[in-house]
Amino acid sequence: MRRFWRNEEGGVTLLSGVTMPVMLGIGAFAVDLGVLRYNSMRLQIAADAGAIAGVRQLPDTAKAIQAAVTVANLNAPRNAGQVTLASDVELVVYDAAAKTYRAAGATANAVRVTAVRDAAHQNQVLGIFSRFAGSAGPFSLSARSTAIMTSDEEGGAGSACLYALDPTNSDTLTIAGSTMVTLSCAARAKSSSAAAISSNGNAAQMTATSICQATTPSLSPRGYSPAVSKCGSPTADPLAAIAEPTPINCKSGGTLSGTLTPGCYSGSTTFRGSVTLAAGTYYFQGASIKINSNASISGSGVTLFLDADSSLTINGTPSVSLTAPSSGSLKGIVLFQSRGATGASLSISGNSSVFLDGVLYAPATAVTFTGNGTTTNPARYGSVIASQVHFTGNSAFAFGSTLPSAPVNGRSALIN
Asked: Where is each Putative Flp pilus-assembly TadG-like N-terminal domain found (predicted)?
């Protein structure tokens, strides 16, 4: 017996027998930790790829969602099934200045994609070894990514939503008085003049993701944040390919109230009282359109088209809430002034009751914004493309989206 206790043969075997379960458990968890890390990495890659693919398809929302889903799943972990469904894709408006999001449809400038392995997607991660060691698996994982289009402007970021297309004149984009203009996007002036962008007075301000013109500014105009710079690429009309509509069966405008249907209106036209515009295109031919203080106008899926001989004046404090169509040839355009309206002008008095959700497109027209909006409740617009753009008075304006009717300009970039 004494010899037995002194015999050291087989000690390693005994020790191995005692420690082997512990070592196997540690190894099992190490392997499964590697599996989880691999899946987390692949899910992030899938979300990133899906977001970039989706944003490249904007403004076509259906194609954006389809591309995001397809590309995300092509980059999913092996044998993970569908990690991204259509319900995992969000079309949003990203405010670069505030770094915030809001849900959007036709006016989206960003795509957010979530890639998931969980019970709802029927693709939870199964541990290879740890389940035999009493682990609580299977495991759920997810990754999210948001992509936005960035422009090629020097020193700037974000797609443009304010364009001044006059090719040669000075003062094509101006701020004056005590106006306050806030853009969650970029502003661009096409003019070759070194003074294309200017300001008058010390109180006027414009804030954007970037502000640029075709040439290096001769002086740095006051009130712009960031400072005006030279654009990194030429500025062109992003909606130049959009065809103008054709008038059919025009009738005299006169005084309009109640519920209106799409069609062609001509001559002196005044909106009065409560006016509801049914969805569609309203063609104004040789019309002088006035929207005065006592008017309350609303409509969804609406485009107002002004031919070369028509004019529009919004003054006083009317209540105006118009949303552009989300489909069709004029998708995203809420107001369209003919390209033949060379030298024409539009005057829009902005106040807290003016809301134009879409593109104000007047490529041959000078657009002037005036009014009494406040910084806490400014007049709200989607985007504006005009020959010249002027802001004056003590008004406050907010522009909140990139162009929904044409492919978004620039490069895609991940923002989180």
From this structure: 10-56
Distances (CA, A) of 355 to 82, 136, 229, 243: 40, 53, 30, 25
Q: Average pLDDT, stretch 224-241?
A: 84
**pLDDT score at 137:** 65
Computed from CA positions of residues 414, 110, 367, 192, in that sequence, does the dihedral angle turn out positive or negative? positive
Q: Average pLDDT for residues 224-228, to the nearest whole number?
A: 92
Q: Where are the domains of the chain?
A: 8-150, 160-405
| H or E element that contains 213 | strand 210-213
pLDDT tens-digit series, residues 373-399: 544 456 667 789 999 999 988 777 777
User: Whose CA is closest to 269, among 317, 319, 323, 306?
Assistant: 306
Q: Please state whether the predicted TM-score (pTM) of the whole model is above 0.90.
A: no
| Cis before 21 (ω within 30) | no
The dihedral through the CA atoms of 65, 382, 363, 266 has a sign that is: positive
Alpha carbon distance 181, 179 (integer Å)? 7
